Amino acid sequence: MSTALLSTADELHARVRHGRRAVVMTMGALHEGHATLIRAAREIAGPDGEVVVTVFVNPLQFGAGEDLDRYPRTLDADLALAGHAGADAVFAPAVEEVYPGGEPQVRVTAGPMGGRLEGATRPGHFDGMLTVVAKLLHLTRPDMALYGQKDAQQLALIRRMVRDLNFGVEIVGVPTVREEDGLALSSRNRYLAPRERATALTLSRALFAGRDRHAAQEALRARALEVPSTHARAEALSAIGESRAAADAHAVATATPGGPAAVRAAARQALDEAARFDPPLDLDYLALVDPADFTEIADDFTGEAVLAIAARVGSTRLIDNIPLTFGSPGAAL
Fold this sequence. Notes:
Blueprint: E1 4-6, H1 9-13, E2 21-26, H2 32-45, E3 50-55, H3 75-85, E4 89-91, H4 95-98, H5 118-121, H6 125-140, E5 144-148, H7 152-164, E6 170-174, H8 194-224, H9 230-239, H10 243-254, H11 260-273, E7 281-289, E8 303-313, E9 316-326
Parallel strand pairs: 1-4, 2-3, 2-5, 3-4, 5-6
Antiparallel strand pairs: 7-8, 8-9
Helix pairs in contact: 2-3, 6-7, 8-10, 8-11, 9-10
């Protein structure tokens, strides 16, 4: 399909619209993760709708010492990938188009959530991100906008801004896309030398260790619930040669569901095991949080949660996360 390259909002607004418009916002250097977002947008918009991909490296969300100048600019390749994935148009404005009067005097403030985790490590980042997202939503006028779940805190803040400020646009989250070795796809992965990449895999290994511990605990809890009483439960499991499982099942069944503390411990153990790597992993944070406000969850928490991690490998900073669900309807004994 022919994909239009547009550089001004007037060009975009002049396009005839029939169905719904879906927007995928990027900073360029597109990869398979972005292609997944574009394909999802194409499916949601339908054959009569329109998919617009924005390519804009936003200077407001780069702090002092961050990689604004070396952030990859690959517009020709981006246009080809976007078109192949199903985009109708790529909107790639200059800085002057987005900020015609220079840096904006009035900006969107991310609030308390914006000062946690990524916001604590990168002060002002989320204010800049929300400001440009607000600008691009106004400039592109979509019915829906799609964002990757890899940037979980960003997605949560965008949803909050849209709800709190009545933007009237649907926000759709799309699951993280990973490379074969488990590393979450990111434009910054290209900065990693082979040995750095080996160290970077610690991020996903730590998350998977926490996920696997959580799954094991939930499986034990479900097994324990299959028999009617604590005493009978232990006897039933012991009878089939699972005395250890019986003890574990009783402990899990009478404790808080899912064990957030155990999930954290499993993830940290994976990080500790990587301490001998060269180059080392410089951890910014490992956190198990409520996606509503990105505060740490308590050990009696039930519901949706996010296990999130951020670290530097050499000069490259990477983030990753996985969603978890603690407890389930009807799980109480």
